[in-house]
Specification:
259 residues, 3-stranded mixed sheet, single chain, 2 domains, 16% strand, 2-enoyl-CoA Hydratase, Chain A, domain 1, Lyase 2-enoyl-coa Hydratase, Chain  A, domain 2, 44% helix, alpha/beta
Length: 259
């Protein structure tokens, strides 16, 4: 069945797929169905050999203004535990291919957490980031206290989480939360340029390099270095490594096939 709350274009550009959250009346609020549809789309795109990079967006007006509070207002601790509220989020982290968030307008609460779960963030000048859960008597639960702290440091993360304040795209850039800020009218163009640059590289090397960067946040330096070295050695089992180095020596453009 076609998804109800997202739009998926696996051929948005050569080797680049697009997922767009599509609940404009609800400011793209993230209910369980939205997250399940994103999970299923990512599973399919991860298995699609033609797709090398995924762009996740909410459109030019809003990325996602938060979780769907109406769906959670009457929940209990046990009901949240039983439905495993955040299991669908885990697939984003497990996705082998790079995911770039294209953020415009609000990226708040779950929206900010969703953007941070992606590998890179390109934001328009209208973007605002924040974790305002404290204002409704709760706290971030999909990584807001963990990924935000790792990205911007303890002081700013603590302020955002405990006050619920928003920061602008420029503030987010200066804090190290996002990759770049662009005018809203060129958000897709600039995100696509970044995606095209990555898609032109060896899919094998990109996958192993992504795994290694992610590992840096989960292990000690020594463990991370060992993981990096194993992945580095593994690239030499690929045809792409042979092609890439041959192309360098022969002063030509490489033709990477993902093998």
């Amino acid at each position: 069945m076609s998804p109800e709350f997202i739009l998926v274009n696996p051929q948005f550009d050569k080797h680049i797929a697009l997922i767009q959250i599509n609940r404009p009346k609800e400011l793209n609020a993230l209910n369980r169905q939205v997250m399940l549809e994103i999970k299923e789309a990512l599973l399919q795109l991860d298995e699609d050999e033609q797709v090398r990079v995924v762009i996740l967006t909410g459109g030019e007006k809003v990325f996602a203004a938060g979780a769907d509070i109406k769906q959670m207002a009457d929940a209990t601790a046990m009901s949240m535990l039983n439905i495993d509220q955040f299991s669908t989020w885990d697939q984003i982290k497990k996705t082998k291919k790079p995911i770039i968030a294209a953020v415009s307008g609000f990226a708040l609460g779950g929206g900010c957490e969703l953007a941070m779960t992606c590998d890179m963030i390109v934001a328009s000048e209208t973007a605002q980031f924040g974790q305002p859960e404290i204002n409704i008597g709760t706290m971030p639960g999909a990584g807001g206290t963990q990924r935000l702290t790792r990205a911007v440091g303890k002081a700013l993360a603590m302020e955002l989480v405990l006050t619920g304040k928003f920061i602008s795209a420029e503030e987010a850039l200066n804090a190290g939360l996002i990759n770049r800020v662009v005018p809203v009218e060129v958000l897709y163009k600039e995100t696509l340029n970044l995606a095209r640059t990555i898609a032109a590289k060896s899919p094998v090397a990109v996958r192993l390099a992504k795994e290694s960067v992610v590992k840096a946040f989960e292990t000690s330096l020594d463990e991370g270095l060992q993981f990096e070295r194993k992945n580095f050695y593994l690239t030499f089992a690929s045809e792409d490594q042979k092609e890439g180095m041959a192309a360098f020596v022969e002063k030509r453009k490489p033709n990477f096939t993902g093998k």
